[in-house]
Amino acid sequence: MIALVTGATGFVGSAVARLLIAEGFQVRVLARKTSSLSNVEDLPVELVYGDLTDYQSLCLALRGCDCLFHVAADYRLWVPRPEEIYRNNVQGTVNIMEAAIKEGVKRVVYTSSVATLGLNNDGSPAHEETPVTLADMIGHYKRSKYLAEEEVRKLVRQKGLDAVIVNPSTPAGPRDIKPTPTGRMILEAAQGKMPAYVDTGLNMVHVEDVAIGHLLAFHRGETGKRYILGGENLTLKEIFTIISKITGGTPPRISLPHNLILPVAYAAEAWAKISGREPMVTVDGVKLARKKMFFSIEKAKRELGYQPRPAAKALEDAVNWFRAQGMV
């Protein structure tokens, strides 16, 4: 079976590609000519060049494929040119789904995000059906992923696209080469650069379990439905404490109020616009941290047979990979 994987040069996509190869799939990888290939250079994949904004290149990439794993996304919390993230995440998703329909692809797994889901004010775990609207989306990344997911569901209803949606939470583990915003947080904590924390929480999951969830969704997921691929709900203090145990460092003891950090974030973004360098803290990131981003994985467990490993293992593998790269 031939599978096209988008985003395989990145963090989650690389894990998906590796698992598919191990399961006997013939994997074709879509990459831009400017992409770093370090995450796939050791893999027996067919490399095709294209771009999510170029519909014809996507048709060529999908020609002869049985299935598509659309993992690629523009994941940035600081977006100096917002139109880029909508072009990549929304129009790019429409383009490749339309191309999949045209080329007769039989099954699609679309990688969305828990960023598209509702949150509970009391901090209790949200699920796939927790109420949410576009107005609840904070920042361009969340809005773009929400709109992209809506477009996928529309194509399922109107054009018969056989697509399953998966919503990974906060992946951690090896090969976060960029790194992602989450990876950068883990790296800086491992380097001892996080002496304080804010009162928030994340659902942490091993990136390889996210990949397993993609495969389970491919085999067992119901068309048009979405499944949260998460792990454990942890406060930020708990995450930093686990990392300090891994590194032998000192866990942070200072809790910073959100209202104190928000002006710093505005100042950091103002300087970023002048310097062109990504800010250390973003306004969207601080606003997102006002709620605990806790999620339930019961639906994926029940319907897909999803069973993630402990979050501490994800953090340990992430830190060890950064250490192997000489970054810790």
Please describe what this structure looks like.
With 328 residues, the chain is an alpha/beta fold. The chain has a domain of 218 residues: 3-Layer(aba) Sandwich (Rossmann fold). It is 44% helix and 16% strand. The strands form 3 sheets. A 7-stranded parallel β-sheet has the order 3-2-1-4-5-6-10, with helices on both faces. Strands 7-9-11 form a 3-stranded mixed β-sheet. The protein has a two-stranded parallel ribbon with strand order 8-12. Helix 1 packs across helix 6, helix 2 crosses helix 3 and helix 3 packs parallel to helix 4. It is globular. The model has no long low-confidence stretch (mean pLDDT 92).
